[in-house]
Design goal:
Length: 161
């Protein structure tokens, strides 16, 4: 899927109490998208025009999902990326809703809906990860990643944008 090394992050899902606490912090729109597999309206997401180097993490659990350097302007109205930050950080699910066949992507650690991936992206992967802004949080380069589950970040991991 990409050329990034396998993750050294703890991908064990949050327990029920942790998940409830994380979900309690979500807005109504975030709950609808992340937990109920909804979609935000195009051209309105807060990260649509974000260009700073950094890392995009799962809004629910904080797992790094995309590097800022993998983001590109797709013209679709949603933030788009060419590849995930590491193999294993996303799960791929066949989605046949709305009379279409697509590949849904969810956070591999907490199962939160992120968006869909399509085979029409630019090089180097040819893939377009079309993501809802409300599914993400952004950490600018040089700042510490969120540690929502209290597990710490792996040492030696190059988590820059």
């Amino acid at each position: 899927m990409n050329d990034h090394a396998a993750s050294s992050f703890d991908l064990a899902p949050p327990n029920g109490e942790q998940r409830d606490a994380l979900a309690a912090e979500l807005s109504g729109d975030e709950r609808r998208v992340l937990l109920e597999h909804g979609t935000e309206a195009p051209f309105c997401g807060v990260f649509l025009t974000e260009k700073r180097p950094g890392v995009y993490t799962c809004r629910l659990c904080g797992l790094p999902l995309f590097r800022g350097g993998a983001k590109f302007e797709s013209g679709t109205g949603w933030p788009s990326f060419t590849a995930p930050v590491a193999e294993g950080h996303l799960e791929y699910i066949r989605d046949t809703s709305y009379g279409m066949v697509r590949t849904e992507i969810v956070c591999a650690r907490c199962g939160a809906h992120q968006g869909h991936v399509f085979p029409d992206g630019p090089p180097p992967t040819g893939e377009r990860y079309c993501i809802n802004s409300v599914s993400l949080a952004f950490t600018p380069e040089g700042e510490p990643l969120p540690d929502k589950l209290g597990r710490g970040a792996p040492e030696g991991q190059p988590w820059s944008g």
